[in-house]
Structure formats: structure tokens, C-alpha cells
Amino acid sequence: MHTPTDAAYAAELDAADELASYRDAFVNDEPDLIYLDGNSLGRLPKATIGLAENLVRHQWGGRLIRGWNEGWFEAPERVGAKIAALIGAHPDEVLVADSTSVNLFKLALAALRASGRPGVILSDDLNFPSDLYVLQGVAELLGGRYPLEVVPSPDGIYGPVEGLLERLDGAAMLTLSHTVFKSGYVYDMAALSRAARAAGAITLWDLSHSVGAVPVDLEGAGADLAVGCCYKYLNGGPGAPAFLYVRRELQERLRNPIAGWMGQRDLFAFGLTYEPAPGIRRFRSGTPPVLSLALVEPGVELLLQAGMERLRAKSERQSAYLIALWEQLLAPLGFTLNSPREAARRGSHVSLGHPQALGIDLALIREFGVLPDFRAPDNLRLGIAPLYTTFTEIHTAVTRMQQSVVERRYEKYTHEAPTVT
Amino acid sequence: MHTPTDAAYAAELDAADELASYRDAFVNDEPDLIYLDGNSLGRLPKATIGLAENLVRHQWGGRLIRGWNEGWFEAPERVGAKIAALIGAHPDEVLVADSTSVNLFKLALAALRASGRPGVILSDDLNFPSDLYVLQGVAELLGGRYPLEVVPSPDGIYGPVEGLLERLDGAAMLTLSHTVFKSGYVYDMAALSRAARAAGAITLWDLSHSVGAVPVDLEGAGADLAVGCCYKYLNGGPGAPAFLYVRRELQERLRNPIAGWMGQRDLFAFGLTYEPAPGIRRFRSGTPPVLSLALVEPGVELLLQAGMERLRAKSERQSAYLIALWEQLLAPLGFTLNSPREAARRGSHVSLGHPQALGIDLALIREFGVLPDFRAPDNLRLGIAPLYTTFTEIHTAVTRMQQSVVERRYEKYTHEAPTVT
């Protein structure tokens, strides 16, 4: 019988994995590369290659302007409706448009302007910095009526749930990353949304590190608004446009502050006065980047086929396995677990801290064929994409991390600046 | 000797065209299709096909997250610097990001908030409706301090220059389409910018219908801000992200209201407080759609090779030829010229009005193999893209328009609704 630290144990888990065949749906040019960064940029679905060629060569090159009548115009809602099925939303509540930052800006500003009462914009210091930057900008624009209040996490890992609940009474909006980018902590969306609603605060969730890996039920949770990224677990390609969600009942009450023609009621009447389209389309602004947008679809379809329950079950097993290996092989070498141990509060990536994290990261990339993420100042973030990550990869990555420290392989990299990844 | 209405005359002009070979740089699946909509969606450069394949298959599929260190991160400024050479800007004054509408929103709001004095946002009723919608949204956000004032054109063709000059004294900003989308009228950017500066108003130009077809000299004109589209004469692909220009001296004074992480000084320090990057990068917001963005480059390179002076000279000859044919063949059938006759005030498209314009448009598309643009209520817009439009195409299009009216071929289409194009 094998123990978890044996490679054979990982191989057995892979052999029993009912989702194992999905790995073949993705391009894998370097079979020896251990890619643990699918939570930064998901792999390329093989189906996307042919779609990209068709979009460029035939739809653009051949059909030219006619392409707008042959699928491009509806693409933001068509792809949005598929993403809706991953996050517990109705098909007419989700739209693909702009970037996550721009969508957050639009929804936060729209909701606060529609809100009857002043109050703080409540968030935490685990939120993705871009979200906090955007919210600072929104607060400034609103001239002090809606200041941003950032509640600190008690330990840099868990969300400050108590602190947030205490401050909800004075809040106009509660906005958080559902799964936080560094520690992978997952908020209880239903509990927080319920409390926010009871206090009269709007909820706006960033699902970037959840969608496609962690089940989300926006309707069940009673969430008001959400945004999220399509280039991580959705495998939509570098900088793929993002999605936004607006609960049906709110759609007609909110006014998109970036009132572009794509959200105009009758955009080809070319009237001079903005009249928002009914429904979710009003949250479009300018013309969408059709190629980048349409390429989101194949990755979403793979997730829908695999099913979020099975994906979550595998992801939980994999992150638990990684934590078990950490405990035996890495904790003794000074690695700390910077993610929740509790499966229900843990997303699909695991962060490990180490004083030499940057050097270890660079050694892993350059000498060990392992691609994790480095997050300053001392975090190695290991992303598990259950569609294609294997148990064997997790096992190999951990043993190579162990080796990089035992053999002090990080030493020659410690003076380098962090790279973009 | 041939007269302009002979097909042989057009053939001679084509034979003498020093830019004729550029047509071969573009995909042309239907050699009989007369595509006069390059000002809505430019043709596909052949060089873009290989680049798209490389981007998807090798950069994304093979290099994965490493692509960000291998060209993606700098792409907004790299492509921006090339566009700068087409519009008389310094390389560090232009950025490719977001859509034209989002860029207009960002720059208008940033400039008005930095402006010392209240005043109107001055524009005209020839401006692209999306610009007016966005400006209405900006005016609303600023709570009445900067109301939008739309000066009407005297005839729907020429810009209301006198009316604008009269109102400049009370203006905080003058914002216009340099070449207007319907009539093709071109403003004297230098004269208007000079007058605006003398009156203390900021200028913000929309170059969407100019860039790549009409020479622009932002620095020479003393223009402050500009935005523009990359999917028309730049041939960047459907919904390609747009560009923005901020004069060097203004960059440090303006604060991007959509303060996303891509405009943060040190974005991988993940600090919690927004600190704008120096220079043009501060006007980035979220992560750019890398595939759609990178595909802008080949089209821009073709324009740079051909040279804006030669392109403008050809475009002027072609639109003058079209107008000469209109006068002889179409005016007697009830077509009106809805564009300036004066070459210096005319862009690269020509609008012709006709009471049956919609039916004629549909007949041209479905029976005559001609693709113009219909612009409600009664305009046919004929776009000339000097990189690939031929004199023969112009001649054929006009004779087919003539035939469609003489034979009353429009009659069966008059009850249809306009299509997206």
C-alpha cells in the first residue's frame, strides 16, 4: 500500500479520476511542464484553435461587416448566458463586456448612485488590489458620500467576517472577492449577502478566482451584483473580456455610467439622446473585442460538460492532497500554509509562504519545470485547475519545492526582481 | 479618349495608382464583392492570419503565462506608439486600451475634473451618437457643473464652426469627431484647437473616421486629448480595442477615473492604495484583451508603409471621382450629395441621400454584390479605404446604384427594417 508521499499514490488518484480525460481537451506543448498557474491564465482548449481560425479567416476575412448580423452582435449575451449556468444566475442576468476593473467600476458606480442612502463602501484588505483601486476612484468621484472602508483580515488568510458584519449597518455596499486572490479563502456568499440585505447594503462580488473552480449560486445567495474574469479557470485567453451580473430586479433601476451606444435601446436609429436598452444589454458600453470575446466560449463549454459539482469535488481532493504533502514534506523546511485548511473555506489554489519564496519561485521556473505564481512578498501560489491538473503534477511540484530548498537552489535568484507573472 | 463615366477611365486610374499593390496585402474571398464599408470594418490583412495563429497556438497555448513577459504586457504602448506616427503624436502619448466609448469617458471625465472652471461640454449634433451618450453620462456624473451643449449643424453636412466658436467662451471642453460619421465633414483641427485653447477650453477629438485615411497632426494642431477606433481604416478586426492620446504636458495632471491595476505605478507590489503610473500607462485600467489588441499591429504597419500623404492623395482622388460620377449618373435620379464638395473638408467616405436609400442599400447588398453602409433615415455611406478600394469598384458601384433606381429594384425591400450594418 502506498502512502501519500509516494508518486505511485498520486498515480492511483489520477487513475481513479473521472475527469482525467478533460486534460486531453487542452493544448500541452511541454508534457514535462507542471503548470500551476491556470488561476492566472488558463490553458488553451484545443477547440479554441479552430474557432480562432474561423473567426479571423472566415468570419472577419470572408464575411466582413456581415459578421455583425451572423453572431457577433449577440456574442456578449450568448457567452454570458453560458457563464450564468456556472454561477447560479439566469441567462439574462450575465453579459461579457470590458475588463473586470471596468465592469466593477460600472456596477459599483451605478448601484451607489441609485442607492437611497449614503454609507461606506465596505471591503477587506484581501480583496484584489485592482478592485480596491477602482473603488477608491469610485469613492472619489462620488465626492465623499461613499467612502471606502477596508476591513483588515485578522491573519492575512481568513476574511474578516466579524469585522464586516459589525460595520454593515453603516454600509451602502459590501464588495468582496468571493475567493481571495492570495490565500484562496472563500467567503460564505449566502450568509454575507443575507446580512448585507438585512442591513440595506448592496452586494457586489468579484468571482474572478471562483468561476469555473468554486461553485457559486448567486440567486440562491441573494447576491445583487457580480463581476469576474474569463482568462483564469474559464480558459478564455489572455486578457479575455470579463463578465458582469446584475440581478433581474435591479437591472431597470441601474444606469450604466459609461453610456455607450451598445447599451442604447435602438442603436441604429442614431438618436442623439441616450435611452438605455431594457435588460442586461444596457450594461454594455462600446463595441466589444469580438475575437477575444468569442474565444471565451469553448472553455466555458468544457466546464459545463464536466459539471461544477464534479470539478469542485476534484479540486477539493487535489488541494487537500497538496496540503497533506505540504505538511509532511514542506512544513519541516519552513513553508507555512497561507490558505485555509477547512475545505469549505478554501478555493482552488493553495498559498505557501517561505522567507525565500521569490528565489524558490524562480528556481522552480528555471530549473525544475514548475510554473507557480509568486505573490509578493513571500507567497507561492499553486493553482489547481481541476479540468487539467493531475495529482501526479501536484506530487512532483511538491517534491521539487522540497528539493529546491534542501539543495538551496533558490540562492542564486534571491536578488532578482519579481517578474510579471 | 475615355470620359469619367466609362469603365475604361476607371481602369486607367487604377493602372496609374502607385498604391494599387497594397490591395494584395488583404484577404479577398469574393473578388466580385464591392466592399465600400472599410470605414465600418476594415478588411483582414493577410499578415494578421499568421499572427493570430501564432498568438493563439504558440503564445497562449505554448508559452502560457510567460507570454506576459514576452510582449503582451507592453503591447498597449507598443501598438500605441505605431498609431502615434499616423496622427502626429509622440510615441509616448498614445495607448491602445478599452473601447472608444470607454476611452472617451475616461479622458472627458479626467480632464473636466482637473479643470479649474465650470463650463459647458461643447459638441455638435454631427458627433457620433455614442460620443454624445457618453458625454451625457459624464455630465450627469459631474452633477450639472459641466452640462453638454450640442450645437446643431446648419445643414446636417457641415460642422457648425461659427456656432462652436461663438460658444467657446463658456466652454470647459470642446469635443468633436474630427471626421463626422455621416457626412464625412472634416473639421479644421488646428483652427478649432487654437480657438479652444485661447478660450481656456480643453480639446478632445474623436479620430475614429480619420485615423488611417485623413492626415492628423495632433501636436501641430495643439490638440489636448483624442480617442479613436482601430477597426475601421486601421484594419484591426471586429471590435478591436481603441486608442487614446493624451498630450505629454497633461499626462501627470490627469487622473484616470477607472483606476485599475494596469495603470498602477508598481502593479506587482499589490499595494492597497492606487498610485498612478508615470506617463501614458496611467490611462490603462484593466487587463487588455491581448489577442484582439495584438492584431491591430499588422494593419497599422501597412498604413505606415504606404504613408499617410500618399493615402490621403489617393483617397481625395477617389472621393472626387465618386462625386463626379454622382453628378452625372445619380443626381438626375434623385440622389443628393450629403458630403462636402470641398476636398479639404471631406474625409474618406461619401454620403449620398435618396428617399429610397434603405431599399437601395438592400438591393445593392442582395442583388448587386455591393456592400455600402446605410445610415438612417436616408443615407448611403460609401467608404473608400485607399489601401484597397479601386477606382473600378467605385465606378461599378455607382453604375449599379443607377441601375437599382432605374429598374426600381429597391421596391421589394422598402418595408424591411435596417440591419446591424
Detailed description of the structure:
The structure is a homodimer of 421-residue chains. Chain A is α/β, with parallel strands linked by helices and 421 residues long. Chain A has two domains: 7-45 and 307-413, Aspartate Aminotransferase, domain 1 (Alpha-Beta Complex), CATH 3.90.1150.10; 71-304, Aspartate Aminotransferase, domain 2 (3-Layer(aba) Sandwich). Chain A is built from 14 helices and 13 strands. Chain A has helices at residues 7-15, 46-63, 75-84, 100-114, 129-141, 161-167, 189-199, 218-221, 248-251, 290-294, 297-306, 308-330, 357-367, 391-406; strands at 34-35, 94-96, 120-124, 148-151, 171-177, 202-206, 225-228, 243-246, 336-337, 349-353, 370-371, 373-375, 379-383. In chain A, helix 1 (7-15) packs antiparallel against helix 14. The model of chain A has no long low-confidence stretch (mean pLDDT 96).
List the main descriptive attributes of the protein structure presented here.
421 residues, alpha/beta, Aspartate Aminotransferase, domain 1, Aspartate Aminotransferase, domain 2, 2 domains, 7-stranded mixed β-sheet, 4-stranded antiparallel β-sheet, 14 helices
Summarize this structure briefly.
The structure is a homodimer of 421-residue chains. In chain A, 37% of the residues lie in helices and 12% in strands. The first copy, chain A, has 421 residues and is α/β, with parallel strands linked by helices.
